[in-house]
Structure prediction request, 1521 residues.
Amino acid sequence: MIWGVVTTPGNPDGDLATEVARRVGRAGADLVLIAPTPGRETAFLAGFMTGTVDVAVIGGARSADVPPYTVARQVNALDHLSGGRGGWWCTDTAENPPRIAEHLQVLRGLWSSWDADAVVMDRVSGAYADHTKVRPLEHVGAHYKVRGPLNTVPSPQFQPVVVLEGSTPEVVEVATRLADVLLVPPGPVPVTDARALVRMPATVDPADLLAAVADADGFVLDLPAEDVATTEALLAHLTTRLLPALAAHFTPKPRGATLRHRLSLED
Amino acid sequence: MSFVTGWFASYLVPDWSGPWAGDSGTSWADGSFVIDSVRDLEKAGVDLLMLEDISYLADIVGGTFEAELRVNARAPKGDPLPLIGRLAAQTSTIGLIATASSTFYPADLLARTFSTLQGLSGGRAGWNVVTSTGDRAAQNFGMDVLPDHATRYAHAAEVLAETHAAWGEDRPVICQAGASAGGIALAGRYADVVVASPDGVDAMRSYRDSIRAAAVDAGRDPDDVHVLYMVTPLIGETEELAAEYAQRWYAPTDAALWRRIVQLSGDIDYSAFDMDAPLPDDVETQGSRSILANLRRVAGDRPMREVLTTQRAQSVRLIGTAKSVADQMEQVVAEVGGDGFLIAGGGGGVLTRRYVHEITDGLMPELRRRGLAGLGSGSDLRSRLQSHREVGVPA
Amino acid sequence: MHLGWFCTTGFGVYGWDQPWSGNAAADVGNPQLFVDLATSLERAGFDYIMLEDASALPDKFRGNFERSVKSAIHVRFDPMPVVPLMAAATEHIGIIATIATTFYPPFLAARLFQTLDHVTKGRVGINLVTASAEAAAQNYGLEKHVEHDLRYEMADEWVEVCKELWGSWEDGAWMMEDKVGGVFADHTKIHHINHKGRFHASRGPLNMPPGPQGTPVLCQAGGSPAGRTFGAKHADTIIASPTGIEGMREYREDISRQAVEFGRKPDDIKVLYLVNPIIADTDDDAFRKRDRIAEAKSNDVEGLLAALSYSTSMDFSKFDVDGPLPDMSANNGHQSGIKELFSRGNTLREIAASYRTAQTVELCGSPETVADRMGEIMEEVGGDGFLISAPVTRKNITEIADGLAPALRRKGLIRSKYEYPTFRDNLLSS
Amino acid sequence: MSKFHLGWFTNFSNPPWNHQWAGTEGRDWPSGDAHVEFTRALERACFDYIMLEDSSMVSDIFEGSSRVDLKYGLYSPKHDPLMLAPKLAAATSKIGIIATASTSFYPPWLLARRFASLDHIAHGRIGWNAVTSSEDRAAQNHGLDGLPPHDERYDRADEFVDLVKNLWDSWEPDAHVLDRENRVYVDHEKVHVLDHRGKYHASRGPLNLMRPPQGHPVICQAGGSPRGRAFAAKNADTLLTAGGEPADMKAYRDDVRARMAEAGRNPDGCKIMYITTPVMADTEDEAQAKAARLRASSAAKLETSLAHISAVTEIDFAALDLDTEFSELSTNGHTTTLANFTKLGSTPREAAIAWANANFRYVGTPDSVAEQMGEVMAEVGGDGFLITGNIGRRFVGEITEGLVPALQRRELVRSEYRHDTFRENLLEF
Prediction:
């Protein structure tokens, strides 16, 4: 059973959101998604948290707002900084699936523009990396033109985790081809290779949660980090009522594994 | 006169093969090299960190990536923003200036990015505005060729106006390194920190005067702009050991030649020229115009090998014991008029933790004991920079 | 007014099976909960956190450990190692750890707390107890426990030795900073104490310089006459739990009077009254919560018997709960608490039923109501503040740090920021 | 040749403050902040452990006063290492942390509980350096007129360690049941009274907290004398001793392993570590020049060395003529240390200077020093080196950024931790 929370950046100094991530991480969560809010850039918050929490933190962003080359570099850096727990949540999937598909193709292409074994550190020739194992992408498409390659080394997961959201046929088709995780509303779970996680409010009743998750791969709960009191109440509800009710479904996961490993996605 | 000290950093592979390289060849990418160094620098009193960046892997030299991936002067290099986000959590007083291109980043993304960093760091955020160099960079962002110099600076001005409107009161520190006329004008209007490496005390003073004049033209108090000069102090336990250290550091080796070639090759493949002849006259570039102009001025008619192996991105050479280097720095600031130094440790493929500790444990304690630097105060970066005007021995 | 938090079972296990316990069960021995307690209470402007401690696992009640370990109430980790971690995450709040003067060798203790004074950058305190349980004495190799009042005489000399050791380096003996002539410390300013007393001996000096506070803050909580005198003579802060306003005023005046006799100013000692406020969103919710607790406690006769067995080292399971009260003349454990309890009824069952949530005064209601009541009490009693006693759970921390404290702050009853760098100055300056 | 182990020998005291590279340690050491950064660097270099030695007296043997001891900060100031251990544990996740506590001054129940708590906080990475203390001055601080005789101290220590181990065992490994349904936190039948009444110590027990994650924290020891070696053979998981000629190192190791076999223990169960201070520089001749500078005699070196040996043997070397041959000397303190000292030179002056330089054995570039160490370990058979020296970033950097990578390239030391607890990593090879 895969589970996590969707939280908000909370106060400007990021403390409350970090506290939520730390507590759910210690309770065994697999990922924490940070919902974009006006005026706040989530890639920063993910970097801010990597040092202090023991869970994957994935920033959400509208793909229309950020050039694909920048997303590829930032998520690569996050994957390095978090020891293999980097990822990206494209929050405007439903708006223009074909453009999103091309955006993801560019990301996947840039992440594999270096072969996994390109770094050789050959003291004799002096080569840090073998240049024949690094290739430009030369992507020319309807929406994007990106020559590549990335100017940094492959990250621990080689292909960081991509999260999409929605349940329309077009979104499901893109997710099956290019995404690792698909957030779906409660109700019938669409067939897809990606891990389908049902998204529900954190105040959900244990029985409803059990029912909704029946044939999905897991769930994410909306747990905003807006003010201390409500956040504490939601966290207490999660750890003392929801998790015990689902205890039977949880198989212990290896600590410190990469996110792909925890989601049992092939490397 | 007390001055500002900054650290010029990169999220870039450091020395990975020398005697003191440690495990940095593999561990640099997880951020620990930069994070450990910046925490030590903060404890030693350094005022700010400037994390530079470029967003392309060039195959200009020799037409392949071979030279870039051997010399490591510019690659492999990670995106600085997530790393600066991490530093905001793991430091408490040092200024955090990150580089982002006004040519490739949409204005609203830049505004959001740096207001978030300002919140996370409690007012210590800074944006190093660059307009980028090299067609290869442009080709990663949907363009075929880099817009020309004038267009880039005009666009930069628009982006700066739009971002400042979005920030209102709580705006991050603006840093700039452009040495061309357009760059200086823009710096006069917006910059709190200007980084440059004019060669020698006279060039340093005239450059600073031009920046301050540009600030006055823009209706600003020239003291609001802090000009920092790039230097690489070489500290030894004795003058003699320091001299030996410098002799090894500046030796005109092949490696030094290749480093310079890679660093200069934005669009022009400098390795294609005859190293034992002077620079031909008909060379032109759309990229970093100031780099070519500076090179031509310094080179004169000397052969390329001699020019390239001795030219370093620094204003003055500082060599000696911690005491004598502190004397030299004090004297340079007195002669130039201000405002501080941006210390660089050799960059990609050369920098070691050992060099960082020569600064944090050798130079900074001496500067602090004499009230010359490292005593900045104030919670946000702008007030910390200002605090240097009041602290320290009057000139 | 000054505020402190009393961790009822020290660095122990709190409410492992209660709702709201978060993942306390898995967090056993993990200091993160106490680090969070410290950061939250510093945000709330508290003066200090007091970590209670005990050196025995009681097995008097029914002759086994069941009652002590089944509910985890007597599981206690050594609080000393958690002090540096709580201090590392904060800048101003004081951290007091408990030490049993009867068993802890004075030189080890003096050096331990002087090290902590450095490591916490001037924010450590010591709670001096003489240890009531006979089992504690047996863990330290004694057959019988030391007699109650004799324990206080030993404690008095124990504190004298520590104070002499802390004073064995004069100010300025350690001048590393300005490196005068390359001398690290001047041996002429460091002296032997040559202490040869009735109970303790030590040549001294301490092999380290004084910390930022010079002397750690001394705290004392014994209510018996010997305990009060010991506190008036040595303590910087005293924890008291007399009953009712009248009892509280009498306690404060008695301490002030005795302090003057020892040549100290009454203001040198901050007396904090032990309370366990019951807070909820509205007054009605709070009253219902109080009644729930009182009802559960008064039916828990076994709980009372186990508690009495622990504090008197006698097996109360042998006594008839409806018969006459047992003779307590030979009691060598807690004295003040037992006398007050036995005045509440004729049989053990009546005493259990007499349980009132209030120990000193009743504080029950919404944060606003409780804050007002606390202000009124301080006016009437003239005392120095409250020590809030509550199990360390995330829910309790939030209710006090984010509920009660802001209400007190809005009424100007507690500090809005810390004036001084050390615990001692913040505690004794106002 | 299988890999060998690395550890660091230091204390919670002032690093040499009065020299060129003293950065902020002069200000940061009293709070433990300097030691935190230093320990993180050791963990990055995959050290097995950091060992915090300790002593509890201001020494006033040399010249009959504490002038020299305090002038150089030799034996004091020195803070209680047990309060530095939690701070180091919180800042690291793999390295072992050994703190010193004396069996002559601590009550057994108090020490057993303190180290059990520390092992929980450090998630199974704590070690106890069991010393009997060797100075009457320390004993007099703890209410005794003087220390018991040398061998009796070890008899007391044997009983002390057995009692502490039994207290750690007073809770069975699975006593902590955490059964929510029946509301049982700990099964009381798995917690046992000890009721130990021995020749020297007594304690009823049990402890009032869970069994330490490692079961028994790692026990470290520094016994040099025959009685000390016997005590170590019975109890120690790691043993430290001065470096020296490979032949002597091998003889010491073989003797201890033989005694372990006699005591029915697997000789591989105790890692013997030799103390050394490598001298390194960019080039060979620079390293030789640096070594010459370090070995040079000086008034300060003579004074500190004589004060040191006086403190641990409680013989006032100031009263001896520095240039006449030694007469018969004996001590109730460090017997082996005195024996080694007198072997290094025929006169106090000679021996003092040689003793001060004893640790500078391996000199060269990081690569050549790595070669030298590999060869010595191959000849001696194991088990590792205990580096000692100034914990400032300059010297530590030479070890963690220069020497260790060179050793790792030769696969002489580990490049990663394979386990979570200190004991598992220590006994991995």
Q: What stands out?
A: The mean pLDDT of chain D is 91.
